[in-house]
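Q: Convert this sequence to structure tokens.
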Amino acid sequence: MKNKINVIITGTTGMVGEGVLHECLMNPNIESIMVINRKSCGISNPKLKEIIHPDFFDLASIKDQLSGYDACFFCLGISSVGVNTEDYYKTTYTLTMHVAETVLNPRMTFCYISGEGTDSTEKGKIGWARVKGKTENDLMKLPFKQVFAFRPGFIKPTPGLLKTHNFYKYITWLFPLGRILYPAGFCTMQELALSMINAIIFSYPKKVITGKDIITLAKE
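A:
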């Protein structure tokens, strides 16, 4: 690329955020990376700057440090399992929108990690899917250069990374079979991360990036 990319990443203390950060650090098209965490991601690299900030619902004190970036990879999120409706909505919708509105600039592309099964109509029976759908829809109304919503299903972790959920060691064996029977529902962490990076570099005609799109974009 003629111009290098400067990116913000949230959620790098989790599996997906760590995987995206890992690929960004290795990618020659990424010039600099700013990560925002409540606790340190524990990684040191010349490309990387880190802001430790305890309250993602109040970013006023760090807003000036988040200006001028080309992309935001929003990988922060929680499972709906065991979480009440109000808390899930606050973390999934309210927090995401607040971060997006804080980093917003007209030349930025915002990449949001959503999930397979998200309900774009916001009217279905499954609560988490409605909330994710509303988040996607309202992000796309903001005046970013582009907004992409990524909807991975099963994600095979990148070997050697530290934030992989423990249960993956019991279910990773399913990946080769799942990839054969239902390839759209199974991607690797590397494919997901590369698809996000390549969406910035090459753009993509779809704004909702499903499993098949993730695999296609990763090969660009």
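The chain has a mean pLDDT of 94.
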